[in-house]
Structures are given as C-alpha cells and as structure tokens.
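Handout, tutorial session.
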Amino acid sequence: MSEKVFDRTELAKFDGQNGQPAYVAVDGVVYDVSDVEAWAGGKHHGNLAGQELTSVIDGQSPHGRKVLKKLPVVGQYHD
C-alpha cells in the first residue's frame, strides 16, 4: 500500500473537529497528533490541526522537532 499524499485541502479536513483525527504537516511529513493531550480539540497554543506547521515548529516551538519522533506518520504533504 502506498503512503497517502496530502495537499492543503486534504490536510485541512483533519482538523481534530467533529470526530476527525488531528493531523499536522512538518517538512513534507504528515503526523497524527490526535492522541496528544496538548492537541485536544485540534488546537495547541494557538495553532490549529489540519495545517502545515514547519515554520511554527522551527521558529516558535520551545521543544522543536524532537517531539515529532513520538508521533505516528500518516503520509506525505505536497502543496
């Protein structure tokens, strides 16, 4: 089975609202943050699931990319 590819429109569907999983994209990889308590409801410190967040995690996040290692990868992001 090939890896799922998300574009901006497809990724936006996974916003953690109305029973949807919460996904975020960083540097071309889509991660599932649904089971991360800090992402409850698809929101985390003003950021929303269903978006590409490379600049946020690299420029604003105190923990940086190290937290990504713990997350399930669900696909690739190409816009």
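The second record follows below. Compare its token runs with those of the first.
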Amino acid sequence: MNQIILHRIYDKSITPEGIHILIDRLWPRGIKKEDANIDYWFKEVAPSSELRKWFGHKPERFEEFRLKYFQELRNDEEKCQKVDEICQMLDENNVILLYGAKDTEKNHAVVLKEEILNRCKM
C-alpha cells in the first residue's frame, strides 16, 4: 500500500522515493528551482492567502485553521481537483508532500494529508 509522506523541503535528509509535490502557494526562499527535486508544484491546493496570513503559524490558532482549511479543500473546485489528482497518484506511487513551514506538526501539510486520506479512503 502506498503512503503519503510529509517532508520539509529545507530538510537535508534524503527525500523518500515517490512523486514529490510542493504544496506551498509561495516558492520556498533560498531553494533553487533546479535543485528542488520536485515533480509537481500544486500551489492551488495551498490555503488561501487570507487563511494563511490569518493563521500566521500561531499554534493556538491551528485547530480553527484546520477546520477552515478543510472547508476550502472541500468547497473550492480547484483544490478539490488537485486532491483528486493526488489520490490518483497514490494508487500507483508513494506521494511526498513538500512544504516549507518550520513547525512539522501544525501546518497545512498535516491537514492536507488528513483530507487526502479521508478522500482516498485509506
């Protein structure tokens, strides 16, 4: 069974095998595109600019952020389409979601992974 793996793009450890998808709306600072080792950049699946700015990576806002981001993932047609594409990729490969946030436990990648697992029935 294939897995969804979260990997911080700044982490210098070896990136797992699979399809590498950058899921940040903004390109990560200090990372050259030719060195990024990504297969896709799904910036459309990232939280809206308004939600991202409101959250501001403040841990005390994470639960509310999580609920609002779920709403975006379920109600925005473009985001829904990208989540469906990831589900299709997951049928044949591991999917590595690349993100830039420093907090590895309270970020949009964690929420996106949860939504993908729910949607793909894994």
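Points raised in discussion: The chain has a mean pLDDT of 93.
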